[in-house]
Structures are given as C-alpha cells and as structure tokens.
Amino acid sequence: MPEARGPAGLNGEAHTRYAPGTPCWVSLMVHGLTATQEFYGELFGWEFHPGPQQLGPYVKALLDGREVAGIGQLPPDRHLPVAWTPYLASDDVDTTAETVRLSGGTIGVGPLDADEAGRLAIGSDPAGAVFGIWQAADHLGTDITGVHGTPAWNELLTFESAGVVKFYETVFGYRRETVGSDDVDYVTLHVADRPVAGVHGLGNALPRDRGPHWMTYFEVGDADEAAARVVGLGGQVLAPAHDSAHGRVATVTDPEGARFALIQEPA
Fold first, then answer.
1. Burial status of residue 32 (CB atoms within 10 A of its CB: 0-12, 13-18, 19 or more)
2. For a tag site, which of 65, 92, 171, 224 has the least CB within 10 Å?
3. Which residue ranges in the chain fall short of pLDDT 50?
4. Residue 16, pLDDT score
5. Using CA atoms, how far apart are residues 121 and 133, in angstroms rounded to an integer?
6. VOC domain: which residues (predicted)?
7. 255 located within any domain
8. What is the pLDDT of residue 3?
9. Which H or E run contains 99?
10. Whether residue 125 sits in one domain with residue 20
11. In the chain, how many domains are there?
C-alpha cells in the first residue's frame, strides 16, 4: 500500500472537487442501520445526519460537521454481502457506466439521481468486485481526510492484477505503476501522476468466502487500540496490527462482517 492520501484535505482540511477516477466516497449497506451507527460512532467518533431519500434509509457520517462516509440499510429481502464500497469520481456517470458495460463489467444499480447531491451508479468489474461511480453536484464526496476516522486508501483485492487493471484503465483512464518485487502482484492506479488506489493480486490466497473485493483503509491514531476497540464493540480482528512500510495496519470486521483496515501513520 503506497502513501495513503487523497487529492486534498491533508490534516483535516476540506476537499475540493475530485478528479475523475479518484475514490471520492465510501458507503456501506447493512441490515441493522441503528446498531451499525453505534459501532462506527464509538470506533471513529462519527455523528450521523439523514442522507438522500432516494437511497432509502441512509445516513451520512460526519466528523466535526464534515462528511466522511455513508451507511444505508439493505431491504429485508436482499441478501447481499455487507461490504464497504468505494465510489470513483466521474464527470459523466452515464458515459462511465456504459464504458463499464462495454469493457466487460456490469452495472447493477443506476445510473440514478440522489436528490441534489449528485448522480450515481453501482457496478462490478469483470472479476466481480463491486464499486460505485459518483458524479458530484452538491455533494462532492468525502470532505475531510488525514485525521482519525477518515478514509485513507482503497485497495482492490483480486485474483491477479493484469486483466482487471486493464478494465480500470479503460474505464477511468488510470496510469498503472507496478510496486514491489517479482513475487508480489501489486499495482497502483494513478491520476495525474499521483497514486489514488491499489490493486493486489492474491491468487489462491484470496478469501474464498469473499472473492474479489475492494478494501477501505481508515486512519486511526493507534491501530492496536482501535483493533481492541473493534472487538469490544462486537467486531472481529482478521489480521492483528502489524508494522508495514506505510504504517501500522490491522484488518478487522464490523459486527455484520464488513471488512475494513485500520492504518496508523508512522511516527
């Protein structure tokens, strides 16, 4: 995982409009909306306000009044995996959605309007990993980064990077850069010469119960303490906090099983 930073908003500063292809928002659909708010509120200090009505029961998570992420409630009859989903910025969601289809991906939701906030679609790449597409209007996306409880990085975990990276290059115009040694299949996706996301090919090590999926990293002040708090709040630790080249990282799940990572920047 390279340097986990967004296009602006370092150290709690507000973001401007996101360049196309940049992860600009993360959203989670769950079965128990109230319980999930309690979990993330305790973990990250989030407060919640109602979101666009077109999305059903949906709330936006805020830190100091700035929008960080979204959480919505799944319909009772929808038995979908509970997972954090990154939204990638687009200047024209309808055109991007059509390019997804023409490039071997699928569009499962939309494109549709979300009040005055913007226009969205939800799709999946050829390997099955789900992502969102966001065309901003009033809502630009995540409004703050660089502090505890904010998204820091998004990473695609898949079988192998080569084929799926071609898909994302075609749809969003990324430039790829191979990272690491020959025995590590890792590629960063760049917008305007800056890394915005990673693709990690895991081969047979990819969790069979999840398949290809995007993983969101959230910044925390203390990864060990945050991981312990996850357990105390009813979640699980999948990979205990450990040191990496980019900070101390733990992989965890919330009580409904949504996977995410905690990252503590190096001192």
1. middle
2. 65
3. 2-14
4. 67
5. 5
6. 22-136, 150-265
7. yes
8. 39
9. helix 93-102
10. yes
11. 2
Reported pTM: 0.92
* The predicted structure's pLDDT at residue 245: 83
Instruction: At 8, list the tokens.
Output: 């602006």
CATH number of the domain residue 204 falls in: 3.10.180.10
Peptide bond into 111 cis (omega under 30): yes
Domain match, 52 and 97 both: yes
Task: Count H helices and E strands in the chain, helices first.
Answer: 4, 16
How many other CB atoms are there within 10 angstroms of residue 244's CB atom? Answer: 11
Last residue of a domain, one of 136, 170, 197: 136
Residues 81 and 155 in one domain: no
Domain range enclosing 53: 10-136
Q: What is the pLDDT of residue 10?
A: 41
**Residue 105, C-beta contacts closer than 8 angstroms, at least 6 positions apart:** 123, 124, 125, 126, 167, 171
Q: Closest by alpha carbon to 25, among 128, 157, 95, 114?
A: 114
Q: What is the pLDDT of residue 9?
A: 40
For position 158, what pLDDT does the model report?
A: 96
Do 18 and 130 fall into the same domain? yes
Is the same domain home to 181 and 68? no
Q: What is the pLDDT of residues 218-250, one digit of tens each?
A: 999 999 999 999 999 999 999 999 998 889 999
CA-to-CA separations, 52 to 55, 193, 249, in angstroms, rounded = 6, 34, 33
Q: Which amino acid is at 237?
A: V
User: In the prediction, which pLDDT does 252 show?
Assistant: 98
- Map residue 221 onto helix, strand or coil: coil
Helix (H) or strand (E) segment spanning residue 164: helix 161-172
Structure-token pair, residue 91: 């200047």
pLDDT at 5 (0 to 100)? 37
